[in-house]
Every structure is written in C-alpha cells, then in structure tokens.
Amino acid sequence: MRNESVSLSLTRSGPIWRSRERVAASDRERTIADALASPSWVGGIRHLAEILRSFRSAKEWNPNRLIERVGEVGSGAAFKRLGYLAETVLSAESVLVDAALARRSAGVVKLDPAVAGRGRLTKRWGLWLNVRVDASPADA
C-alpha cells in the first residue's frame, strides 16, 4: 500500500469511496463536535482550540451548523467546552456562547479530561480549568 496525500472538502457526514473501499467520513463540524466531547481524540484541548481558531477563519465557517452537530453528539460537556472556548479563543462568538449556555449540562467536568488535576473552577461553564488555553492571537 502506498502513501498518498488526500485532500477532502467535506460538506456532510457519510461514507465516501477511496478506490474500492468505502470509508466513513465526517464534516468539519461533526469532527469538532466529537473532539469537544472527547478532546484527547485530537491531541487535547489546546490543539482543539487551534482547530477552532483555524476553522473560524475559513470561508466554510458556519457556527449554526457547529451547534447542530454538537447537539447530535448529545454531550452537555461538549457544550460547556464549546462555550468556554468560544469566549476564550473565538472573541466571544455570541451565537456559540448563547447556544452553549442554553444547552450545557449540570455538574462539573474537566476542560481536558486527560490531564490530571482540577485547576480553577468556572461556575459559568461548570468546568475545572485544568489546562491553560490562550486567547486568540488577534485578541492578545
């Protein structure tokens, strides 16, 4: 099997064909939604913050579709992380913050579950801030 670079422009979740093989694929928003539910899947919350920053600057950025996909994941913790990251690294993207506040779950979870320690508690989001996530470079 040879290595090939593949560039995909996905607009929806679903299967795609790669040669004779059917491969499951997801759109950008669903990938981010899954990562919000389990940040370790993309290398941790810091990397997820970078992914969000990068995606926000893309012409395909659609916060309403992202909210829809996070809802499909069915994780209140994902909404907590989305809201916190929207305030911290996306210049308080109001559509995301408002949706996350309305859909966050009760209880408290870690910002990055894979990192030991609890850090500081933010009651607004019900998150233990156990990892430092820097503000957007444009906001610094």
Characterise this structure.
This protein is an alpha+beta fold. It has one domain (24-129). Helix content is 41%, strand content 13%. It has five helices and five strands; from the N terminus they run E-E-H-H-H-H-H-E-E-E. The chain has a three-stranded mixed beta sheet with strand order 3-5-4, covered by helices on one side. Strands 1-2 form a two-stranded antiparallel ribbon. Helix 1 (28-37) crosses helix 4 and helix 4 (76-89) runs antiparallel to helix 5 (94-103). The longest helix is centred in the middle third of the chain and has 14 residues, at 76-89. The protein starts with 13 loop residues before the first strand and ends in an 11-residue tail after the last strand. Residues 1-11 have low confidence and may be disordered.
Write a concise synopsis of the structure shown.
The protein has 140 residues and is of the alpha+beta class.
Shape: globular
Total tally of structural domains:
1
Number of strands: 5
Number of helices: 5
Order of helices and strands: EEHHHHHEEE
Radius of gyration: 16 Å
Q: Give the end-to-end Cα distance, rounded to a whole number of Å.
A: 46 Å
Strand order of the largest sheet: 3-5-4
Helical content band: 40-55%
Largest sheet: 3 strands, mixed
Residue windows where pLDDT falls under 50 for at least 5 positions:
1-11
Mean pLDDT figure:
86
